[in-house]
Amino acid sequence: MSRREGRGSGGGRDVGVVTAITPTGHVTARTAGKWVPLEGTSVVDPTGRFAGRVVRVFGPVARPYVSIRPRRPPRDAEAALLLGTTLIEAEGMHGAA
C-alpha cells in the first residue's frame, strides 16, 4: 500500500497537490480522489515548513479541491515554492467528523 493510500513511512496521507495561492493567502490543492480530507484536517508540506488546516472541500466529487487556511499567509517566495507541492495530513491531527 502506498502513502497515497494511507500508509506512508514517516508521514500521513497525501491531501493533494497545491494548484494556487489566493490573494487572501489561502492555498488551493487538488486531491487525488482516493481519500478526501475532512474540514478541519491539519496539513503540512513534506519539509514541515508550511502548515495549515482544511477549511473547505469543493468541486467535482471524483477529484475535489480543498481550500487550506495557513497558520500564516505564505510570502511570495514561499508561495512560489508551494505550487506543485504535495501536502500531507499532519500526524495525529485528523479533522472532526
Features of the shown structure:
97 residues; mainly beta; Thrombin, subunit H; 1 helix; 6 strands; 34% strand
Q: Report the CATH topology name.
A: Thrombin, subunit H
Under the CATH scheme, which architecture would be assigned?
Answer: Beta Barrel
How much helix is in the residues?
under 10%
User: Rg to the nearest angstrom?
Assistant: 12 Å
CATH class descriptor: Mainly Beta
Oligomer description: single chain
Order of helices and strands: EEEEEHE
Kindly summarize this structure in a few lines.
By secondary structure, the chain is mostly beta strands. The chain is built from one helix and six strands, in the order E-E-E-E-E-H-E. A hairpin with a 5-residue loop joins strand 1 (14-21) and strand 2.
What does the secondary structure layout of this molecule look like, with pairings?
Blueprint: E1 14-21, E2 27-30, E3 42-44, E4 51-58, E5 65-70, H1 76-82, E6 86-89
Antiparallel strand pairs: 1-2, 1-6, 2-5, 3-4, 3-6, 4-5
Descriptive account of the structure:
This protein has one helix at 76-82; strands at 14-21, 27-30, 42-44, 51-58, 65-70, 86-89. It has a 6-stranded antiparallel β-barrel with strand order 1-2-5-4-3-6. The relative contact order is 0.29. The chain contains 1 helix and 6 strands. It has 97 residues and is mainly β. The chain has one domain: Thrombin, subunit H. The longest helix has 7 residues, at 76-82. It is 7% helix and 34% strand. The protein is globular. Mean pLDDT is 84; it is low at 1-10. Strand 3 (42-44) and strand 4 (51-58) form a beta hairpin.
